[in-house]
Each structure stands twice: as structure tokens, then as C-alpha cells.
Amino acid sequence: MSRKRPRLVPETFGSRRRRGPGGAGEEPPGGEAGSVRRALRELGELFPRLLFQDALPPIALKSQVYSLVPDRTAADRQLRELRELGEVRVIQLGFDADAQGIVFTEDFRTKALASCRGRPYEGTVKRFLASVLPACGDLSFHQDQMTQTFGFRDCEITQLVNAGVLTVRDAGSWWLSVPGAGRFVKYFVKGRQAVLGMVRKSKYRELLLSELLARRAPLSVRLGLPYHVHDLIGGQLLDIVPTTSGTLLRLPET
Amino acid sequence: MLGFLEARQVGLDDPGRLRRAEATRSMLSGGSDGIIALYDLENFSRKVHYTCKSICSVGRNHPDVHKYSVETVQWYPHDTGMFTSSSFDKTLKIWDTNTLQPADVFHFEGTVYSHHMSPVATKHCLIAVGTKGPKVQLCDLKSGSCSHILQGHRQEILAVSWSPRYEYILATASADSKVKLWDIRRASGCLITLDQHNGEKSKASSEAANTAHNGRVNGLCFTRDGLHLLTIGTDDRMRLWNSSNGENTLVNYGKVCNESRKGLKFTISHGCSPEFVFVPYGSAIAVYTVYSGELITMLRGHYNTVDCCVFQPNFQELYSGSRDCNILAWVPALREPLPDEDDEAETQKNPAFEDAWSSSDEEG
């Protein structure tokens, strides 16, 4: 290896990762849809299923994908391809316009069916999952779409909202949603604030990544420190500074 | 002489609304104190760190100086005999460079945020002016009055830019989150309103339909070939658009911090491969590649918020103005060629110069 020219581009956490949270890794970021799929599976491993009694499919956030695949444009493009193939669904989580959750369609379908088993709206939900999900890859649905194209009556739409598969967005339009995702969003928001607080309270408002992961998580962090760290890095709420002692996380100045 | 054929670039701000004249290598800057200064950019001192002197300026004792902050300055696109400046004192002044007297003054009802004159126009001499009102005004230099109003925006116009490719295409950015492309020959309204979701209604809440950003749109910059348009907004995003059909190319630059309440002047390189966009980011300047969205580096050197930057393609230099009252020139660093590791192998002597004499004293 010849002596490298000094790089203008610092090695970010994402491209040098695999020493950070997430375990062993291999491929260079970017490339085909494979790298985002791999990233999603890895994030699925980090998701704490037992916390929700296995009722929720593993939800990964888009910002976490950016942390694992540092080339954002390529990550977006691959996500679009996966959406077009029908492998993943994007869910609007509601607390932030930017925060979108990504679930694998298969997991979503299994968990949604499991959550409505034995309830009166089971049939409607089954019909929804069978007819609307494959046909329409959008994040939200409109009144006309639901009634005319797919033939759902108003009472059936109310049943879907009660089941948790749809969430009200506007008068006459609904977001697609994961049943039982409310608890996840609550833990996520609290956990994100708690992890940011850990960095904020430290001297000089910066922490080594290894130090942060070694600390005991405060009680409000239920989803696990690595999960939140990926989200904060990918969402650019923390800056990555490569140092000789490892990666440093720093709060941005502004 | 390339300078005469080059398109002029957009001005900067505080202290500099900077503008370069390629032919005479001088730069215009307008400051928040209303002063306009001309600098000579050529560096004859051969030192690595040099200071450009101000050749002349329209200072506070000039009778026609702007009363409030100068927002935009621009050289007349065809030569440096004239320049235009617009300011928060609701005027746009046309100056004669040799005498430093205003040749004409246009008055408006609201503060002027931005103005631009087309760099490639031959058939018209219109200056597009964005003011606090929602109407874009086009002022004609030949007749000395506002000839044209473009209606369509709902709030103040923060940035205007003519296309460097077509002389009748104008882009305007407004605080109502919309960016519109106009053909000024058309009477019936804008050509395209840029939509960040490319028509997919499902992505965002219904209020965000047809908007270019989720906040005020602060800055506009066409690429040099005029085929793409970069916009920057207070939702901390920068977007790249295809200027012919208004499609969002969905290049993701990440978070581009933008806290400016008025327009933000950023600039694109010319003659580099790949092209870079230089965006003021707090007190540093962020450099991104335009078409792939990668953050290359942050240029640090200012002590306070950077307001504007402009690129000089002939010298390949970047000039930036900031609230610390400094204008800095960023010069590309020439790297020393690294010595190769297999140096010894390369220094093989030409056999013609080898001699057969042994180097030892003894006979050999």
C-alpha cells in the first residue's frame, strides 16, 4: 500500500463502522440494494422484540440506515428500489416529519394479522392487507382511493383505524401504521432525549463512542444504546469526529 | 479575454455582496453598513498569504450611498463599466463605475432582498427584483421603469436568479416555501412550481403540497450549464432540481444548517470535475459534490457566521464574506508530489554514463 495522500474526506463512523455497535461487518457502503437490505436486517437484530412481547415487527428508522450506509443518495435510491419491489414499507412515525420507520412487508403482515386475531375487525384487516398493501406502495391513503378503488365502506375504515393499521392524517386521509406502534414511539422519543442528554451533560459536550456504549443506560432508554446511537448519527443530531482513540460523538455547535 | 464571454456570478453579502468581474479581476462587495467597495483580486506579491486592496468605494460620505444594508451587488454582465446594487432602503441603484455616481435609481414599496440581471441576455436588459411583497418586479434598464410584474408567490421573494442557459427563464424563491420557474414572455403565470415530492401526494402532510422545501426558501443557484438548479431552505435541506422539467433529483446532502432570515448566497464551482457547491454553514463553508451529495470538507477560517460566498472560475478561488467583517479568499492548495517508495529503482543510471572504473583504490 503506497503512502496515502492526506484524505480530504474523513473516515466517518459509517464507513469504518463494524467496530461500533452492530457487530461484524464486511461490505463497502453503497452499491446495489443489498447494502440497505443488510443494514435493515442488522438494525432488525438491534430492535428489542421482547420489550413489546413480540407484537411489533422490527422497525428501523431511516436515519439509522444513513448511519450504516453513509452515502445518503445511494441509500435513498436503494430504499426506493426496495419499496418498489414491495419488500419494505415506510411508516410515518408522527413525532417528526423526517422520522420515517421502515419495516419489512412480511414482518408487518404477520404481526398485523397476529394483533387482530380473534377481534371483530379481523376480516377487514385481512382484506386490507391482502388487497391494498400489494397494490399501493404509498405512505398514506386517501378517502377516494379507499372507497372507490378498493371498495371499503366508512365503517370498515373506522375498524381499520381501531385496529391500528391506519392513523388519521387529515380529513379524509390516513397514514399507514403499525398496530401497537404507540409504545414504540413513546420509548423512542424518551430514549433519544436521554442519550442526547448523556452527551450533553458530559464535559465539553462530547463523548467517545466506546465510552458511551460502556456506560449504563439510564432507565428511560428501553430500546438499547446502539439503536439510539445509530439514529442520532444518521439524523445528524450528533457529529462524528474520528480521533486516535476511536470515534468521538460531539453535539453540533448550533 | 475569456472574461468577456463568461457569465457573471451572483453577489454575496455582509460585509460582502461579492461579485467578480472576470475581465478586470476586480470584485464588488456590499456591506450591511451600506458601503460598496471594489477590490483588486490579482496577487502580485507572490506570497502565500496576501491582502487584496480596495481600489475605491462608495463610502458613508458619498451623497448617494445606500442608507441601510446592501443586499445584492452585481456587475453589469457585459463589462465592468456599470454595476447594480440593491439594499434594504427599498432602492435599486445603477452605478457608473468610472465616476462612482448612480446613473439611475428604482424605488420599491418593500425592502429589496435580491436582484439579478441575466448573464446571457442579448435581447433584453431586465433586472429581476425580489422584494418584501409577493410580486416579482422586472425593471428595464433601457426605459428606466418597471416593465413587468410576475404574480404567483404569496409571501416575500428571498432570491431570484436568471438561467445561465436561456435568457428568458427566471427562477424565484419565496418565503412561502415555493420555487417557481418563469418564462417572462408568457403572460399567464409561472412555468413550473417545484415540488419536492415529485407529485407523490402521500409523502407529506397536505399543506406541504407543491412546495420546494418545508420552510422558507433562502437561496437559489443554477449550475453553470443551466441544466440543474440548487435550492436551499430553512428546513436545513438543499435540493438539486432538473431545471427543464422541475423534477427533484433526490440527491441527499444531509443537514445543511440554515438560520438566515434573509437570502443566503451560495455558489457552485466551474471548471472542476466533479463540480462542488460551497454553502455557508455557520461560521464555516461546507463543500459538497453537486451530483452525488457527498460532504467533502468544511472550510474554517471565519470567526462569525458566513453570509455569502462566490467562486472565481478563472483563478479557481472562492471568496467568502462573514459577519466578522472579513472577506476571505480561499485558494486551492497545491500539493507537493509525494515521493515514490521505490525511488531507488527509478534512479537507474543511463548505461551510457556508467563507467567501468572500479571505485576502490586498488587495481580491479
From TrEMBL, chain A:
<dbReference type="GO" id="GO:0003725">
    <property type="term" value="F:double-stranded RNA binding"/>
</dbReference>
<dbReference type="GO" id="GO:0016607">
    <property type="term" value="C:nuclear speck"/>
</dbReference>
<dbReference type="InterPro" id="IPR018865">
    <property type="entry name" value="STK19-like"/>
</dbReference>
<protein>
    <submittedName>
        <fullName>Serine/threonine kinase 19</fullName>
    </submittedName>
</protein>
<dbReference type="GO" id="GO:0046579">
    <property type="term" value="P:positive regulation of Ras protein signal transduction"/>
</dbReference>
<comment type="similarity">
    <text>Belongs to the STK19 family.</text>
</comment>
<dbReference type="Pfam" id="PF10494">
    <property type="entry name" value="Stk19"/>
</dbReference>
<dbReference type="GO" id="GO:0042803">
    <property type="term" value="F:protein homodimerization activity"/>
</dbReference>
<feature type="region of interest" description="Disordered">
    <location>
        <begin position="1"/>
        <end position="35"/>
    </location>
</feature>
<dbReference type="GO" id="GO:1903518">
    <property type="term" value="P:positive regulation of single strand break repair"/>
</dbReference>
<dbReference type="GO" id="GO:0003690">
    <property type="term" value="F:double-stranded DNA binding"/>
</dbReference>
TrEMBL record, chain B:
<keyword id="KW-0833">Ubl conjugation pathway</keyword>
<dbReference type="GO" id="GO:0006283">
    <property type="term" value="P:transcription-coupled nucleotide-excision repair"/>
</dbReference>
<comment type="subunit">
    <text>Part of the CSA complex (also named DCX(ERCC8) complex), a DCX E3 ubiquitin-protein ligase complex containing ERCC8, RBX1, DDB1 and CUL4A; the CSA complex interacts with RNA polymerase II; upon UV irradiation it interacts with the COP9 signalosome and preferentially with the hyperphosphorylated form of RNA polymerase II. Interacts with ERCC6/CSB (via CIM motif); promoting recruitment to lesion-stalled RNA polymerase II (Pol II). Interacts with KIAA1530/UVSSA. Interacts with a subunit of RNA polymerase II TFIIH.</text>
</comment>
<dbReference type="GO" id="GO:0016363">
    <property type="term" value="C:nuclear matrix"/>
</dbReference>
<feature type="repeat" description="WD">
    <location>
        <begin position="210"/>
        <end position="251"/>
    </location>
</feature>
<dbReference type="GO" id="GO:0009411">
    <property type="term" value="P:response to UV"/>
</dbReference>
<keyword id="KW-0158">Chromosome</keyword>
<keyword id="KW-0853">WD repeat</keyword>
<dbReference type="InterPro" id="IPR001680">
    <property type="entry name" value="WD40_rpt"/>
</dbReference>
<dbReference type="InterPro" id="IPR036322">
    <property type="entry name" value="WD40_repeat_dom_sf"/>
</dbReference>
<dbReference type="InterPro" id="IPR042238">
    <property type="entry name" value="Rad28/ERCC8/Ckn1/ATCSA-1"/>
</dbReference>
<dbReference type="InterPro" id="IPR020472">
    <property type="entry name" value="WD40_PAC1"/>
</dbReference>
<feature type="repeat" description="WD">
    <location>
        <begin position="299"/>
        <end position="330"/>
    </location>
</feature>
<keyword id="KW-0539">Nucleus</keyword>
<keyword id="KW-0234">DNA repair</keyword>
<comment type="function">
    <text>Substrate-recognition component of the CSA complex, a DCX (DDB1-CUL4-X-box) E3 ubiquitin-protein ligase complex, involved in transcription-coupled nucleotide excision repair (TC-NER), a process during which RNA polymerase II-blocking lesions are rapidly removed from the transcribed strand of active genes. Following recruitment to lesion-stalled RNA polymerase II (Pol II), the CSA complex mediates ubiquitination of Pol II subunit POLR2A/RPB1 at 'Lys-1268', a critical TC-NER checkpoint, governing RNA Pol II stability and initiating DNA damage excision by TFIIH recruitment.</text>
</comment>
<comment type="pathway">
    <text>Protein modification; protein ubiquitination.</text>
</comment>
<dbReference type="InterPro" id="IPR019775">
    <property type="entry name" value="WD40_repeat_CS"/>
</dbReference>
<keyword id="KW-0597">Phosphoprotein</keyword>
<dbReference type="Pfam" id="PF00400">
    <property type="entry name" value="WD40"/>
</dbReference>
<dbReference type="GO" id="GO:0005694">
    <property type="term" value="C:chromosome"/>
</dbReference>
<dbReference type="InterPro" id="IPR015943">
    <property type="entry name" value="WD40/YVTN_repeat-like_dom_sf"/>
</dbReference>
